[in-house]
Amino acid sequence: MLEIKNLSVSIEEKIILKNITYSFKKGNVYVIMGPNGSGKSTLASAVMGHPLYKLDHVSKILFQKEEIQDMSPELRAQKGIFMSFQSPLSLSGVTVYQLLRYPLSGKMDPLKIRNSVKAYAKQLHIKEELLSRSLNEGFSGGERKKMEILQAAMLQPKLLILDEIDTGVDVDALKRISQVINDLKSPDRTIILITHYSRILNHVHPDTVLVISDGQIVAEGKKNLALEIEKKGYSAVIKS
């Protein structure tokens, strides 16, 4: 599904990721953990094509065996990559219905879009009044995260990258968000969860846990790796 080769990424001349090579398999759920500033979100942003992040000339990103490192974020999204943001932006004058209408045009009629959005909103306990307001304007942190997962559920991407979707949400919201993530699991979809905490693993069970430190993948394992980090800290798995 997603393959990164010799991925080195810098921002403003500062090197953040250092020569990472890894293959993310179709149908699998991955959790990426690591200390603050380790490069977790940079990896996600590089895959999505954030313009501020510069890739080394030998770095390759392949999505479904096609090189995408030179594609715009918009084209990557059209090909089936969705990334949620740590701090979702507000869009004045644009409702979630309007935001979804363009990418779903030709796939779903407006009435079906509206009904599906309402159904996911009910599942996520999003107040219906928020659906008709400017997206994320005046929303709480938890409401913004719910809106991100609602959009992902509507768009049904082939590659779903969730950057700290569990940060700033209460226990009940985390359960509902996790339920939608579990509903999105599919043999044809790869899911990557970036998190600081293992609590989401009480609800979502990954196939693989990766640890990034100092711009490199330093550990790989199963759920018990995340639990060990929660108990003992990153020093238990990061070799000095």
TrEMBL record:
Keywords in alphabetical order, please.
ATP-binding, Nucleotide-binding
What SMART domains does the record tag this protein with? AAA (SM00382)
User: Could you confirm whether the keyword Transferase appears in this record?
Assistant: no
The ABC transporter domain extends over 2-239
Molecular function terms, GO-annotated: ATP binding; ATP hydrolysis activity
Q: Which InterPro entries match?
A: AAA+_ATPase, ABC_transporter-like_ATP-bd, ABC_transporter-like_CS, FeS-cluster_ATPase_SufC, P-loop_NTPase
Known Pfam families for this protein? ABC_tran
Family affiliation: Belongs to the ABC transporter superfamily. Ycf16 family.
Q: What is this protein called?
A: Fe-S cluster assembly ATPase SufC
